[in-house]
Amino acid sequence: MSLYVEKGIEDRKTITFENSGDDHVEDNTSDIVFQIITVPHPVFKRAGNNLLITIDLTMEEALLGFK
Q1: Does residue 26 lie in a domain region?
Q2: How confident is the model at residue 18 (pLDDT cuts 50, 70, 90)?
Q3: Domain range spanning residue 31?
Q4: SS3 content of the chain, % helix, strand, coil (to 5)
Q5: The model scores a pTM over 0.85
Q6: What CA–CA distance (Å, rounded) separates 53 from 1?
Q7: Cα–Cα distance, 33 to 42 (Å, whole number)
């Protein structure tokens, strides 16, 4: 079994594999449910499907670019 997580998936979103778990007494098979929990990144912040970063720039860097 493989679990594919799409890019930009929302926090607390669930992915369900129906009838893929253990068998029960009444011939019912349980579901397997994964809940996606995002972990905060020390530099980047998430805003919807965008990643944001705040950095300090000099006027020269802003106008001419930098590495």
Answers
A1: yes
A2: confident
A3: 14-64
A4: 10, 25, 65
A5: no
A6: 36
A7: 29
Dihedral pair phi/psi, residue 31, rounded to 5°:
-95, 155
The single-letter DSSP state of residue 28 is P
Domain count, the chain: 1
Q: Residue 36 contacts by C-beta under 8 Å, 6 or more apart in sequence?
A: 5, 9, 10, 11, 12, 13, 14, 15
Q: Give the residue with greater pLDDT, 49 vs 61.
A: 61
Q: Is residue 5 part of a domain?
A: no
Residue where the block lists tokens 């670019």: 65
Sort 42 into a burial class: Cβ within 10 Å, 0-12 / 13-18 / 19+. Answer: exposed
